[in-house]
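Minutes, project check-in
Item: structure for the 151-residue chain
Input as provided by the requester:
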Amino acid sequence: MARLMEWAHAPRISGIGYVAAYLAVALPFVMLDFLWLTLMGPRLYQATLGDVLRPNPNLWPAAIFYLIYPLGLIGFAVLPAYQEGSMLRALALGFMFGCFSYATYDLTNHATLRNWSTTLTLADICWGSVLAGCSATIGYLAVSRLFAGHG
């Protein structure tokens, strides 16, 4: 009951705050992942997967992923951390969200795809965890600054 009362008095965001939170999470997520894929794509993914990769990626599924994933980070990391006023909670929850979601993808691929390697699995899970943790933290900081004193 005490936790419910705490939540009822937690700082709130609405309207433009959700848009700001989304952009504050999505932009660094996409930019950092683009940098990672540009640097590590040839070294890690292409080297491991070879001819399994498309020569020209299908961009629609990627676009949908990059539109949806930040919503998960906001719901499972940024907003809970904001309600507690804890940047470290945003980092930890974002890291865990990234770890679990990337592990689901990578371990399934490791179990089912012949070319998928342990190195690729471990590198991609670590990257997804760091990427999600950093993006959630940036989102938390943006929302906290935007709504400082509103609560």
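Outcome recorded: The radius of gyration is 17 Å.
No further action items on this chain.
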